Known about the structure:
By secondary structure, the chain is of the alpha+beta class. The protein has one domain. It contains 12 helices and 10 strands. The protein has a 4-stranded antiparallel β-sheet, sandwiched between helices. Strands 3-10 form a two-stranded parallel sheet. A hairpin with a 2-residue loop joins β8 and β9 (209-210). The protein is globular. 39% of the residues are buried. GO terms for molecular function: 4 iron, 4 sulfur cluster binding; cobalamin binding; epoxyqueuosine reductase activity; metal ion binding. Pathway: tRNA modification; tRNA-queuosine biosynthesis. InterPro entries: 4Fe4S_Fe-S-bd (IPR017896), 4Fe4S_Fe_S_CS (IPR017900), QueG (IPR004453), QueG_DUF1730 (IPR013542).
Amino acid sequence: MNGLSEKYAQIVKTQAKSLGFDFCGIAKAGFLEEEAPKLEVWLNKNYHGQMSYMANHFDKRLDPTKLVEGAKSVISLIYNYFPGKRLPEGPEDLKIAKYAYGQDYHLVVKDRLKTLMENLRKEIGEIGGRAFIDSAPVMERQWAQKSGLGWVGKNSLLLNRDMGSFFFLAELIVDVEISPDPPMVKDYCGTCTRCIDACPTDAIVADGVVDASKCISYLTIELKENIPAEFKGKMENWIFGCDICQDVCPWNRFSKPHREPLFEMSPDLANMGKREWQEITEEVFQQVFAKSPLKRSKWSGLRRNVWFVESREG
C-alpha cells in the first residue's frame, strides 16, 4: 500500500469518529471465498425460513465488486445503540428488543453514512460508491471481521472486545484504494456457551450458525403467518425481536450507553405497560411508532405476537 492509501485510511477514521461512529475498519474488496460454502449450506438447510431475499443475489452477497462497480475497499462501521434507560424486563413484562427503543436505525445511520461520504469527497476527491445499513446483500459481519472490528460469536453476531454486540453495523463500499486493517483472526468466545444454553427455542444450531426460522426475532418480525404452535411457552414474552443471546453474553458487560438522541426512548414507549400493549389500537400504534423499527411488524403483527405470548396454554 502506498502513502496515499494510508492517508485516506486516516481521513476515513477521523471523519467516521466525528460523526459518532464508535469503530471504523477497512478491508480490501473481493470475493469472500471462505463464506461461499457456508452460505450455501445455510440456505440449503432452509435456515432462512421465509426470508426468501436471503437466497437472492448469491454472487453479489459474496463479492462487493459485483454490487458496486470498481469497488476496491469496504469500510465497516459500528454505531452504538445500547440504551441508558431500559424498559422493564421482568417475567410478566412484554418485551421488545433494545434496538427498537428509538427511531428507525435505517434512517438515522443512513444519514450519517451519506454525510460521511460527502465529507470524504471533500477531503479525498471524487469517490464512487454506495452506503449500506442492513439494506442490501452485504455480509456485514464477515466484512467487519475482515476489517478487524471483532469476531463472529457463537450467536452469529459480531462481538467487539470493547463494547460487546449492542450496535449496528454499516458499510461504505468505495472505488478508492484505502489501506486495510488486519483482520480479527482470534475467537474470544472460548468455551463459553451461555448464548446457546439460554436460547429458549434452540435457534443456535452450531457455533456461529443460527436457524433463523426458530429465532424469536424472526418469529416476531419476519414471519408473516401465524407463529407455529411448537413455540408456545418458549417466547419469554418477547413481542418484537429478542435480546436473550446478547443479554447473557459476558462481552456485553462492556456495553456503554449510546450518545444518539434519536435512539432515546420516547415518553409514549416508556409508558407502555402490559395492558397498553394488550389494548393498543391501530391508531395509537401508527401514532406512537411512526418512526420506529416496530412499524416493520405492523399493528396486526404486533397484535399476533402479544396474543401468542399471552396464550401459552393454547
